[in-house]
């Protein structure tokens, strides 16, 4: 008996993106572009404010400080998704982006001007680095999870550690 090929794409992977899904992916990409810009702007503001405050506090004292600035992006489930639970966190995944101390990596997260080819051939827009990082690393190519995202929560946190000596 001849075997009929399965017309369904493998679970979690999308080979033929439909128009509705293209729009959802384009919207997510645009939201991530705005998130990258906000993280970049907010990080610069926080570093500048910290620099002024630290300069005033150090005047005349011998203080060493370690500074860490991290942006965390939580990707939340759409409210119309069947797995959405009211009153729950509904986190699909998260990405932590180290900003300070400066790290050198291939992620390019936080550089809103960086665009790359879309991981979806049918998607005409170039994807921002945060989109690619989300899809390829955090979700490991799971398109169903990517399409389930409907909200973002972004935290930029400045952590300080101080060592005083005399």
UniProtKB/TrEMBL annotation:
Taxonomy, superkingdom: Bacteria
Protein's name according to its UniProt entry: Uncharacterized protein
